[in-house]
Amino acid sequence: MLGFIARRLLATIPVMGVVALFVFLMLHLSPGDPATVIAGDYASPADIERIRAKLGLDQPIHIQFGTWVWTLMQGDLGISIFSNLPVTKLIAQRLEPTLMLALTTLIITILVAVPMGVIAAWKAGTWIDRSIMLFAVVGFSIPVFVLGYILIYFVSLKAGLLPVQGYRPISEGVVPFLRSITLPALTLSVIYIALIARITRASMLEVLDEDYVRTARAKGQLEWKVLIVHALRNAAVPIVTIIGIGVALLIGGVVVTESVYNIPGLGRLVLDAILKRDYPIIQGLILMFSFVYILINLAIDILYTLIDPRIRY
Amino acid sequence: MASITRRRFGVFTAAAVALGAAVGLSAQAAQAETVLRVIPHADLKNVDPIWTTAYITRNHGYMVYDTLFAMDENLEPQPQMVDTWEVSEDGLTWTFVLRDGLTWHDGTPVTAEDCVASLQRWGARDGMGQKLMDTVASLEATDEKTIVLTLSEPYGLVLESIGKISSNVPFMMPKRLADTDPFEQVPEIVGSGPFMFSQEDWVPGSKVVYLRNENYNPREEAPSAAAGGKLAQVDRVEWLYIPDQTTALNALLNGEVDYWEQPPVDLVPILQQNSDIVVEVLDPLGNQGMLRMNHLHPPFDNEKVRQAVVAAVNQETYMLAAIGDPEYFDICTSLYACGSPLETTAGADLLVNPSKETAMKLLEEGGYDGTPVVILQATDIPVLNAASLVTAQTLRDIGMEVELQAMDWATLTSRRAVQDPVVDGGWNVFHTWWIGGDISNPVTHTGLSTGGTERAWFGWPDDPKLEELRDAFSKETDPDVQKALADEVHARALQVVTHANFGTWFNPVAYRSNVSGLIKSPVQFFWNVSKN
């Protein structure tokens, strides 16, 4: 297993190299020039050229790429063109809100979706199953921003229970943190609850018809033991897979939720950077996202072996 | 166990009371900290107001820095950091003496040498500064508080330049920072203004914090636009950038923020339904829309064709599409900001009387041959997006072929710099706007520059006569002659058609009713603003 993990981690190096080259070329060959954005409406062409020279954007593209890779190899993601701050600092400022939002969403999702899926499979064909599947269809269909605004309207503006926007770090206290994260996490988790509940139900239905489940029941096992110990464990591989994919999507896909609730997370950072053509931030973030995805996939692969001992690498 | 004597008890009680009072006072002081929470119009992405012309960085500059002169509400320059000043009889030597008691945020005193370095850095970047520096023979500090500016020839806009209200504003910085290459950002934000920038609290894309400068030495005059006494009435100002407009609306309605700098006009009715919210226009000059044509390539290398476009522009159509509510727009047929001292309609017949028939006639006279017109359409800025669509239809209505090319503003800013023919990535038309403070005279109005591909603004009109008139205006010191020259510039600009004006609109601000003291000005300031 250790050899497998080491091989997988080593394999990230060429993958990251390809990602780096692709991202760099994609950005630098697409239209838009940060120098013109910086220069503003009053600058002369000569001013713009001087700004481009100061930023190194007048260099041939292979030189720019080489410079970037060289700084990367020194563990430096570069300096933001606009704010003049290190990209690592900007990412660090935004990491906590995004991670906490993703983590809270994940906890809510697993706590709600897996039991819902198990119950739906257990009560397949009944009104309980249909109700859960109706919720899943609605939850999957409703756009995140619509749900966000609906929750804000009723919970914040009408009932005055929670703030409309903003993020309070956990260092400012658990209660302010929970008050700020509850609505965004609920909003974001609905779609994942719907997705994972459906997958759990389908996966459970497959194993509930298996002989060993029938045998367990025939032996007089308690029903909850049959469901959790015998069925769910065997149905877990696709569920873990979809949760893993969900986590990966969560890390980069929270931008809408972050915008609706004004959470200063990574999603908004990358969006702002794209709109301004702040190349070092975009490059740094995409590299980081790629690395996180690779790690999540690795974690899922390791989890498979724990859930299903038959799986070996 | 030691017994407690009456005296000991008295001392203990007194100490307890004193401690309690101290705790109470500090709690009261903590409670008394007033924080003004503001939703700014944009995110503060960079903090050097000389390095960039972004309006949000200019507004940040006004929080942190001070200026030698500043514009009052009549757009007249008034002394700010300067105490006294005099001009030699020949108008060539200007002597400025700084006020007493000016200090930088790091505690060091403001010196004339700092101000000289700051003016030189500004003069290397700002268009109006460059024009002033062209006539400067020397600029020096003759003692700790005296700055002497010597000109090589008379110049009529010395105070207007160093007191200019909008980007790039000549903000004063310590010499060690002002010596930074003008094309690089200053490494540290140290000013002498009414608020101090809190570097550690700055989260680009989210939050900027300013703390009251307890050592600020305000002027005694009442505040008037950028001029007068700058009294910081709150302890802390927080700029909370909320890009989503619905979220910003909800935050203001819910009392989570106090002030919204630029609510969109279509959300104003919702705000007005709430009795705790005040909506008003603070900028008396508003914004003026500009339809810019590229003079380098057909069909707009032809003066008659450009005039045809001006004749076709119906400002009301543009404003109804882009703004909607007539309370927040005006028809303005001056290229200078309407309401500014030089407002004029000299030579503006085509703008005053828009006519499709006149436009078609001019198009025919210009020999328009069906060359397609490429309009750069900035879809991420609603006003410019609407203006692009109206222009496309307007030009089609007079018989022109039109191609709209949709893109975001960042792409547009690089596309518009391309001087190549349209088939090689060039362009024919784009839209933008200026705040009134930027276009109050022929020199500050960059759109009136006609120095061709070398010196003119994007679109590159080339008209030596107009440049001569702008130069004459800048060197004229008699206000009446200056006004006449401004009229001549205006008429000439509309004859050669530097651009068309597609209307003026006013961005309202919205704030909670417990906020007061807002200053009417083309730029929004946060001194004098208090919160109950």
What would you note in describing this structure?
The complex is a heterodimer of chains A (313) and B (532). Chain A has 313 residues and is an all-alpha fold. Chain A has helices at 2-29, 34-39, 45-55, 61-73, 87-122, 127-141, 144-158, 174-208, 211-218, 223-252, 255-260, 266-276, 279-307. In chain A, α1 (2-29) packs antiparallel against α13 (279-307), α5 packs antiparallel against α10 and α5 packs parallel to α13 (279-307). Chain B is an alpha+beta fold and 532 residues long. Helix content of chain B is 32%, strand content 18%. The radius of gyration of chain B is 26 Å and the shape is globular. At the A-B interface, α2, α3, α5, α7 and α12 of A face α7, α14 and α15 of B.
Number of distinct helices of chain A: 13
Low confidence ranges of chain A: none
C-alpha Rg of chain B, in Å?
Answer: 26 Å
Largest sheet of chain B: 7 strands, mixed
Spatial strand sequence of the major β-sheet of chain B: 8-9-10-1-11-19-12
Helix content of chain B: 25-40%
User: What's the mean pLDDT score of chain A?
Assistant: 87
**Total beta strands of chain B:** 21
Rg of chain A, nearest Å? 24 Å
Q: What is the terminal-to-terminal distance of chain B?
A: 53 Å
Q: Main sheet of chain A?
A: none
Mean pLDDT of chain B: 92
- How many individual helices of chain B? 17
- Fraction in helix of chain A: over 70%
SS strand fraction of chain A: under 5%
Quote the beta fraction of chain B: 15-25%
Q: Which class do the helix and strand fractions of chain B yield?
A: alpha+beta
Question: What separation lies between the terminal Cα atoms of chain A?
Answer: 7 Å
The secondary structure category of chain A is mainly alpha
Q: Which chains share the greatest interface? A: A-B, 47 and 51 residues
